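chain below, 284 aa
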Amino acid sequence: MTDPTPRPQKVDLSDEKVHWDLGASQSYAEYLQLDKLLDAQKPNSFEHDEMLFIVVHQASELWMRLFLHELETVFEFVRRDDLDPSFKRLSRISQVQDQLLAVWGVLSTMTPSDFSAFRNALGRSSGFQSPQYRILEFQLGNKNADMVAVHRRDARHHEALRRALAAPSLYDEVLRLLSRRGYGVPEGYLSRDFSQPYVASKQVAGAWLGVYHNAEKDWDLYELAERLVDLDHKFQLWRFHHLKTVERVIGYKAGTGGTGGVSYLGKALQLKFFPELWTIRTSM
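prediction:
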């Protein structure tokens, strides 16, 4: 007969070589600077859900930090015409985008009354003012000089944004690569004013059609094109989920940053980073 008396469960560590004494080594918490990280949540109110709001946005900023880190190496691989290693980076970026998408599900658990209880404590602060997000948009090709002005009070961020605005985007670098490979990209697209918004071109669309028709010969360019479509697609999903979460939580109120909220986010849904990669799908 089995003993019915419950027994405490405990993992046996007697055969594990645990470093109970770390000696001169840094600890996990020290390596990750958890004291700073976990002390960075400073609600401006006593409302319970403000912590949720802060953590979701801080987590998003960390994922964007990794997005930018990976994107930097993609730029380098494209400039060097060494595309195979870029695919690993772009795969990782795709997974990062999944994490960015997932946070909207967490935030959408907040009801309108939950948010309105502390919304005034935000003042004029808004995700519209995220320097990392704006740099990310600039690096992917959505150039808009007006967006830099809101960062004037922070000289470091303002200068970083000005540099990102003036620099070639990822798409600009990819078009330069297409040209070097012999595809007919107009000269005006290779040395233009990169601070200006990109304008789609029939000639560029024709160059991409050439890549798709020569996929066997230029498989790496074909694969790059599909990775870029994936990136653009997931960014559109992120924007859509952002819009629907805002609509769910505040309806059609104006945003704290001064935009129209849902109406502004709806405009952003019309944007594509790599427009010809979408238009040529009808022609194939």
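The radius of gyration is 24 Å. The chain has a mean pLDDT of 93.
thats it, cya
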